[in-house]
Amino acid sequence: MKPRKILIGAGLLIFILSSQSLANFGARPLGMGGAFVAIADDANAAYFNPAGLARNPGVDITGTTLLSNRNARIGDNLMALKMNFETELNPFLWIAGVGIASLVALQGAKYLSDQGVLKKNWGSPTEKVEKEESVAEKVKEGGAEKTEAVGQKIKEKAKEVAKEALSTTTSTAKDVARHTTVNVNWGPWAYPYYYRDYHRPTYWDERPAEEEYSPQGKAQFAGGLSWLTDNNSVQDQNTNYYTLTLATGYEERVALGGNVNFYDIKIPSLNMKGYGAGIDLGLLLRPVDQLAFGAVAKEILTTDIHFENGMSLSYRMSINCGLAVTPIDELTLAADIRNVFRQAGKPQTNHYGAEFRPFPGLAVRAGLNDGSKTAGASVMINQIILDYAYLGGSFNRTQIVGLTWRF
Q: How far is the C-alpha of 107 from the C-alpha of 97, rounded, in Å?
């Protein structure tokens, strides 16, 4: 890797890690009103639809930071690593592999269920909350029974899995970094700092039909790590969410993915911690380039979040569906419905967004996030993507800026 790229990467990481608060769930999706379930084609995919990590091969490190007007949502710090590798593969072998992996995962889930660790989230009597809500008030109402041993066990397991995944993904990321950037002349209207590399495509790129670059006859395998953290004195909650994501797709037409989430929550006023875990499953279908369908079941399997005073909570299960349409190459329109089946008696929420890419390297966005207006923009400079989002309405005019480094 060239010294200039090393300096860029080091600067990006210092910027992200030194930020006091980062904005929840990514500047690009929120600029589109959160309508991202059927798009999910960058490192922000883990939260919205883990299957989307299998789109656009390459390695991304992304993070977002709050500029002004913090809102009341939990989760204002986010960093994510996405790695997607593509290889030629017979479709029947891919289907067989997915089937075997699914059976192994099913047996693993059944074993954990038999041990009383994991349970289905639909119909569960445990009191439920949304991920973005503070649980402090509910925990303060809890009893005095201690569950520290259970929490410590889950916490240690979370650290063990995250450490192993980071070690594996870091070594494989170096292989992808060998690709050299291709500088393409776009003519007099070209954005001067945009460099196209079909080995590492972005959402601006339509992949060509040449066998070397096309996803035709190829399978995608992806992994990711996300860390969402928030020390929120207003909500009396310090939050750490760790997410391991695995996804696979074929020809970028169909993709499946899942998240394993680990939760570490502290209530500062009580000096009390709680630990838990959950599983998300996602599906993404693109029958043609102009149309995509997405669905995700969030917290479909879960543990209770046990607090040291005996209080137990769990995050609410939510089935989210999305549709994305690209009537012209430069424009994408998206719509999501969250909590389709009104789990836990909560209403559906509607999310709409639009992204316009007038030329490679520039994108502008607008959306409605359950009635709150949002807007945003992105610009790509060499291998760095800068994102901005403005969140109005119930978000209190929050402004976010994001950075993504593709290497």
A: 16
pLDDT at residue 331 in the model: 96
Question: Residue 305 in contact with residue 316, Cβ under 8 Å?
Answer: no
Q: Is 236 left (phi over 0), alpha (psi -120 to 50) or beta?
A: left
Parts of the chain with a pLDDT under 50: 1, 3, 7, 10, 12-23, 144-151, 154, 165, 169-170, 172-190
Distance between CA 294 and CA 255 in Å, rounded?
9
Per-residue pLDDT at 380? 92
pLDDT at 127: 72
Strand pairing class (312-315; 318-328): unpaired
Contact 44, 29 (CB under 8 A): yes
Other Cβ atoms closer than 10 A to 114: 9
Is the Cβ–Cβ distance between 336 and 351 less than 8 Å?
A: yes
Q: Over the stretch 139-149, which tens digit does the pLDDT of each residue have?
A: 777 654 444 44
Closest CA to 405 of 62, 85, 16, 64: 62
Whole-angstrom distance, CA of residue 356 vs CA of residue 311? 47
Q: Write the DSSP symbol of residue 52.
A: G
Q: Are 386 and 406 in contact (CB under 8 A)?
A: no
Distances (CA, A) of 255 to 106, 296, 321, 324: 18, 12, 15, 15
How far from 242 is each of 93, 251, 260, 401, CA to CA, in Å? 32, 29, 8, 22
Query: How many other CB atoms sit within 10 Å of the CB of residue 137?
Result: 12
